[in-house]
Design a protein that fits this description.
Layout: E1 12-17, H1 26-34, E2 43-47, H2 50-58, E3 63-69
């Protein structure tokens, strides 16, 4: 079975929201919602893809990476 172009299928990343979206640009609030976060200290486990990494890199002041698993 071939791997997808986004990398191995088993890699996941857990992110936690550490900042409030209040008084932030709309695009940053929408990025949080896209990651599945909308309240402080919520954690979400997502597939480790370039798209998810890009979203995290756009709002590093609002989220932190809790765990990376392969």
């Amino acid at each position: 079975m071939a791997e997808s172009k986004s990398g191995p299928t088993g890699k996941t990343i857990t992110v936690e929201q550490i900042g409030s979206p209040l008084r932030r640009p709309a695009i940053q609030r929408q990025t949080l919602i896209g990651l599945g976060l909308n309240k402080l200290h919520r954690k979400r486990t997502l597939k480790d893809t370039p798209e998810v990494r890009g979203m995290i890199n756009k709002i590093p002041h609002l989220v932190r990476i809790v765990d990376e698993r392969s």
